[in-house]
Structures are given as C-alpha cells and as structure tokens.
Amino acid sequence: MPSSLSTVQGSRQRAAVSARLMEAIIQSAGPHDSPTEEQILSLILDELSQPGHSRTAPWRKER
Amino acid sequence: MKNILVMQLYRYGDVLQSTPALASLRRAAPDARIHVMVRKAFAEVLRGNPDVDEVVEWDADVLAQGPSDAASCLERMAALREFIGPLQAKQFDAVYNLSNDMPSALLISLLRPREVAGLVFCPDRQYRVRNDWLRYLFIATNVRSLNTINLVDVFAAACGGADRLAPRLAVNPDDEQSAERFLAGLKGTREPIGLQIGASKPAKRWPAARFGELARRLAQEGHPLLFFGAQNERIEVAAILRDWPESLAAARNLAGETSFAQLASLVKRCRLLISNDTSTIHVAAAVGTPCLALTFGSASGWDTGPYGEGHFILEPRAACFPCGWLDRCTTLGCRDLLSVDAVQAAVACARSGGRELAPVLRGGDVVLHRSRWMPDGLLGLEPLTQPPLTLRDLLRRMVRSYFVSRRLRSEGSAPSEAWRPWRDEMLLAYRVDDPKALLTAVASAAADLATLKRLADLGVQAANTVLQRSEPAGATPESRAHLGEAVARLERRIFAAEENEVLRFLVAAFRHSLLDMDTLPPRQKAALHRWNYQSLSEGCAFLHEALGEFARSLSGAGRPAAEAPPAHDVQRLLALAEGRP
User: Fold this and answer.
1) Which site among A50, B221, B295, B363 is 20 to 30 Å from B101 CA-CA?
2) Which residues in chain A are contacts of B127 at CB distance < 8 A?
3) B66-82 pLDDT per residue, tens
4) For residue B135, what is the nearest residue in chain A, using CA coordinates?
C-alpha cells in the first residue's frame, strides 16, 4: 500500500490520466450501454491506481 | 469437469481463512478443477494445498505502478489484457469472490462465468453481491458490533460447506528441518511461547513496551520466547530485547527471518502464541497451536479470530469496541484497557486450559473469551469471566440466531425454539447484576423493534397495492406519484432507524437488498420490495419475541416485558425516524 506522500500524489496523477483515458473510451459507447471490455479494463486500472486499492469496497464509498 | 475459480485478493490471513472454503468445494466436487487467484506476495500460503489445482498470481502492484503518461497507461492495459486472456479461455463454470474490492468484481465481469458468488460488477454498471452468506458479510461489515460469525464460517458456507474444517497449511519435513536451526541452543525449562508484536495497522498493535514487559515476566517463569513477525517488525523486537538484556537474553528475534512454511513449523512447536490480530493467529489455528489473540480497535475476535475450538481472545469491555470500518479513532482508549497484568493473567488462563481465572480478568475492563462451537454449529466465543450481561450481548446472539436460522439456512423453527439454546447459554455465561436496568433496556429495545415492524408492515401494504393492480401502468400518474412519494418517505424513515443499534443490522440488511432491484421491471420490483419489507417485519418480530422470551426467563413472572413498551421510547424512535431532534 503506498504510504509516502509522493507515492500518493503519483497515484493521483496516474488516476487522473487513467480517468481521461477512460473518458475517451466511454465516448465510443452510449451512457446506457453495457460497459465494453476496454472500459472495464480501464476501470480496473483506475481502481488499482487509487491509494489503498486493496481494501476498497463499494459500501465504503456509499456512506 | 467443472471449472471453478476462487478469488481472494487480500493478505496472508485472508488466504488462510479461505482454505476451509476450498476444502468444501473440493468435497462437493472432487473432480472439479479448482483455481485460486491470490496476490502474488501471498501465493506461498497455498503451496502444497491438495484442494488447489492451480494458483493464479495476481500482481496488482505491478499494474498499479509506473509512469503517469498515457502511453504507460495503455501498456498497463495491454498487460492486464494479457493476464485476463488465458483466464477467459478457461470459461469458468463458477467464480467465488471472497474479496470485497472493486478490482475483483470488475475482473469477474470480464470472465463471464455461469455462476458467481460474491461481489460482481453488473452490465448496468452497478456493484452487487451474489450469495446470501457473502451478502451477510457485507451487512455485517457495516454493523461490526453485532456480528458474531467468524469469517471462516462465512467463506465455507458461501462455498457450500459447513464442516468445521480447520484452515489448511502444508508443512513438509523439509520445512520442519530447516526451521530447526532457529531453535538450536534455545534455553528454558518449558515449551516455547511465540509472540508477535506487530500488525498490519498501528491501531491494531498492543504497545511494544507492554509486550516487552510481558515477555520479561514470561521469561522469568522459564518460558523460551520466539518473536515472530515481518521484516519491518525486526527493529522493534530488537529494541525490546535491548531493553531487557538479561531477562530476554535467550529470546529469539525471528521477525523477517523465516519463510512462511518455517514460520508455520515454528509456531507448531509453541505451547501458545500471543499475538495481535495478525495472519500468524491463523497459522496457529492451521497447525493446531492454541492462541491468545489481543483484540481492540478495529480488530474483533468474533469475526477474524483464530478458527477452531480452544483459542483465547482478550478484548476490552468498551461501548465503542469494535471500531467500524469507517471510524478513525485517535485515542485508542480501548487498547489501554488491556494491561500487562491482564494479558499475563490471560496467558496463565490459556495455559491452564481456561481453569485459572485471576481477579484482574474479572475487574470489568476486559473480557477473556474461549472459542468453541455454538448451538448453530458455527464457531463462537464464550466469556470465561462471567461479565455483566448487556443489551448488546443479547442482541449479538439474537441477530445471529435470526440470520442463521431464517435468512441463511431457512430453518422453519419458531423464533423461541431457535433462540432458546442461546438464551440458556447466556444466562450461564454472564451475570446479571441489575435485572431491573436490563429489563428496562430490553423493553425499550422491544419498543423500537415494534415501531420498526409497523413501518415495515406499511411497506408490505404499499407493495401489495402495486401488485394487486392488474396493470400497474393503468393507474393514474397522480396515484402512482402519490404512492411513490409515500414509499420514498417510508424508506427514509426506515433508513434513519439505522442510527439505532438495536435496529441497525436489520435495516442494513433491508438497505442492502434494495441494491439488487435497480433494473427490474415494476411488478417484479414490487414483489421483491414486498419480500424485503416482509423480511424486515419478520426480523423485527423474531428479535421482539426473543427479547420477550429472555425477559420472561429473567423476571420469572411469565409476563413479556416487551409487550408494554414505555411510550417515550416509541416517541423517541419516531422522532429519530423523522429526523427530529
């Protein structure tokens, strides 16, 4: 798990780049379509680039 | 031949805790090909495991690292595609996701298995949990103070087993032999005691200075001491040994020195392992060494304690214990309740097999538990020190009794029948210092449940209204809107009741079930809503009846204390549900 500030910042930068990439990929599909394989791959990388990715769960984000 | 994938993307301890589930799958389908996906760093836990045909190593760290430019992102995507391709080709019949993180759920959506248990990313871009036991785990994680089911039991049951199988860890003669050198020249008149002073998070660590003092006392009693741990714990152990150069001259600092298999081999030789909430307690459970786990903060022995009978858990007696996952406690006041005297007394108790109970363990600051099989056949903890019974102690067992008998196993027994064995055990294991105060708390809880039940019954009526219409679309837009508003208001009131600990587990289950309904057509959705409201109503009735049963047995008067709730409690709950102060 990244702990130093620089690593965390690096992760955020990567997430930002990944998000832009994701956005570009999503352009190719309508908002109600099932996600494509490429989109899901991008989502996985996006998740992995978040600090503490190994313990991220949806119910934490809900609250 | 069935092709199965089990995903466990957490740490050493979680992988070990999943091994009984693997054994359950193997028993159910001896010819199946069982693949297990684990993080690369923890793959060694499964080495030599006969229930595993193939270990799939998930190297998340490599995929998460690298430069931040777009070209690098595309490279990582290509690497991920290369990883997933061969897995897609296997066309899994079933995937069991024992992790609850989003990457695992996303990976599953790419594998497109025929069946899924656990968290999955759905085509409508929502995350959902399949399988009742794993859904229970998600609910319990939000309401940790009331969960009493061990993670191993949840995993095993989710994979179709309930066989009380111990975690499995292969220790071969080579491991035993190579571990031997760590014990050469070890002095002491008794069998060694193992200690692990570290943990994955600082908030799970009992202070190193207290471990040092405890070690000094144990060494004085003639116990050779083995300090286990990860490489990053080595310096702290060395500091302890430096603080007590004479008393701990013979102690061994093995932190960071052993392989996983050597660690298992050494733990196996210990008379007892004393540890924070670490993977080593699960190693101890796997090799049959009794364990004394020190739990506080976010570490609860009920859900992640060592699996199997005869382990000991020392926990603080604090209203806020255990922390919820989202809590960020900075004071760790509950940790301070575990004094060196209390832990030393717990060690003596564990060594005597639970017979020696020093007065310090009865003082009210701590509770010493021993693990054993409970009336429902699953693991649980029994207090050895007969602590004063609280409403929360009651609720914990009642919630378990309800969920296991009704929601997870669908047993047809009456609430009183399901609950009675628990009630009898509790009356023996706890003391009731102030029956009047406890009965008042029980009556108040019963009143809260009665109010929630009324709300749930209103929900059933609303769902029936929708279902009884021959054509839902035939209703006027006004009437549909009116009903929709009423149901939304009702849901808000039910959600608000989650603030109340008595109701929290039931409401969390209700809220969680709603997640599965997003995309259903109206009639199907209404039917599921009705089931959800009915389940909530039944849960309230179950707990209400169990509380009444308990009150009757405590008061001996045959009058259910729960039937005449004080009016102010009803008002309080309604005010809470409506968001009034």
Assistant:
1) B295
2) 58
3) 766 777 778 888 999 99
4) A59
